[in-house]
Amino acid sequence: MKRLLNCTSSEMASMTKEELKQSIMACEGRVIMTETVVAVQPLLGDLTNAELAVSFGSDMILLNVFDCDNPKINGLPETDEPVKLLKKLVGRPVGCNLEPIDEEAELMESRREISHGRHATKETFIKAKELGFDFICLTGNPGTGVSNASIEKAIKLAKEYFGGMIIAGKMHSSGIDEPLVDLPSIERFIDAGADIILMPAVYTVPGLSEQTVMEACQLIKSKGALSLSSIGTSQEGSDEDTIRMIALTNKRCGIDIQHIGDAGWCGIALPENIMALSIAIRGKRWTYHTIASSVNR
Questions:
Q1: pLDDT per position as a tens digit, 6-32
Q2: pLDDT on residue 92
Q3: Distance CA 138, CA 97 (A)
Q4: What is residue 223's three-state secondary structure?
């Protein structure tokens, strides 16, 4: 199995779930995932934010605010198969957020209601599979009310009905006051079927120490799963020095995949911050290799 760094687009497209997971693991902490909002006008207008992200060094694309009942990706031409077309254009693994809403949880803020097609349910898992997603991310946007308990339930359902890679965890509170990096919850997530455990990156949420993330990474690795750190607190719109500091700190903790969020401008991180993140954890050689590699290879 080739590591993702070395793979061409055609090799990525032909990977099974298990092969993709192994390919990421082999990169030793040098994989970049960029999240983009699909429901707004893209930064470049007639090109998707996903295409822009890949051109600045992203290896994986995570679509936010994607509605499985009304599948639309702004920036694409008219098509009945938006996910498959996007995957062809970017030549990278593509996934989407689905949110396991906890209707009984007490929130710290007013709850933000979302459409049914964004909820993590049996129906949306089946549709996500039919649409062609390589992975799904079970997490929560601000104020939607996603809890660790509801994530665990959703993992079990996704394991049965989706079939691709499952990412699970919280980037921030999602409106609920509970531990964001909780070792017992992480164990339950992996036992339930999660392939990748998502955590906030060190320096993105108050009080999250490097030691806590390092211990979580060690646990995740011991159980055969992958770890993902998330910049999901609008710091994706910060300065490049901040991004580099976050990148190197979380690599030191043992993170396998580094995620950068969508809150720069028009539903994407500042493109230069995607590149800064990439260069910080794998240097200019592999960053330029990723940028230059044709999707036709």
A1: 999 999 999 999 999 999 999 999 999
A2: 98
A3: 6
A4: coil
Residues constituting the chain = 297
Q: Which two tokens stand for residue 85?
A: 């077309």
Residue 11 φ/ψ, nearest 5 degrees: -70, -40
Its sign, for the CA torsion 171, 111, 237, 120, is positive
Strands (E), 158-225: 165-169, 196-200
Helix or strand (DSSP H, E) at 32:
strand 31-37
Task: With H, G, I as helix, E, B as strand and everything else as coil, classify residue 260.
Answer: strand
For residue 252, name the pLDDT band (cuts at 50, 70, 90).
Answer: very high
**Tell me, what's the pLDDT at 214?**
98
Left (φ > 0), alpha (ψ -120 to 50) or beta: where does 234 sit? Answer: left
Contact yes or no for 66/53 (Cβ under 8 A): no
Displacement of CA 38 from its chain's centroid (Å):
14
Identity of the amino acid at 233 = T
Q: Which of 258, 284, 285 is nearest to 31 (CA)?
A: 258
Domains assigned to the chain: 23-292 (3.20.20.70)
| Residue pair 255/261 in contact by the 8 Å Cβ criterion | no
Reported as a pLDDT band with limits 50, 70 and 90, residue 105 is confident
Tokens of 289: 């290799």
Burial class (CB in 10 A: 0-12, 13-18, 19+), 23: buried
Residue 148 to residue 267: CA distance in whole angstroms: 26
Phi-psi region of 273 (alpha: psi -120 to 50; beta: other; left: phi over 0): alpha
- The number of beta carbons lying within 10 Å of the beta carbon of residue 207 is 6
